[in-house]
Amino acid sequence: MNLTPVSEKFILHWGEMGSRWGVNRTVAQIHALLFLAGKPMAADEIAETLSVARSNVSTSLKELQAWRLVRVAHTIGDRRDHFQTSTDVWELFRLIVEGRRQREIDPTLTVLRDCLMSPELTQEPKESAQRIKETMEFLETLTTWADEMLRLKPETLMKALGIGARISRTVRGSKT
Predict the structure, then answer these.
(1) Does domain 5-84 sit in CATH 1.10.10.10?
(2) For the HTH marR-type domain, which residue ranges apply (predicted)?
(3) What are the domain boundaries of the chain?
């Protein structure tokens, strides 16, 4: 597959953003390539298109599969595994949010709850215990809100986001 200048720019930028989000650059570039291609691609085709080692592609695809962002697809007449991702931005957003929650937020909530249930909490300064409690309450509220938003259909979510933006501007007293 030959990349157009725009596709190349998008893929390179997605790789840069991936590294800022804590994702390996190649993992993010492979995801971007599959997203733009909109069709299943074999690992060797991905390696050739991005000029990266086949072993790196294999490792990256496994990581993307663990995030449920990439799935295996088969094509008639070709015994190789092909890989594809959703081209639906909202579906990808949901998968990423769910994955980050499972890997980051849920374990943090577990630790915060354990801290608050610990008999040793009485040995902590009251201010520290209060900060732990407030952090837990904040994360619980945030995850409850995120769960509700992710249950919405994309068109409903877009309307909710638009209403939220208008409310925010109204509260701030801005007209833009």
Answers:
(1) yes
(2) 22-80
(3) 5-84, 89-172
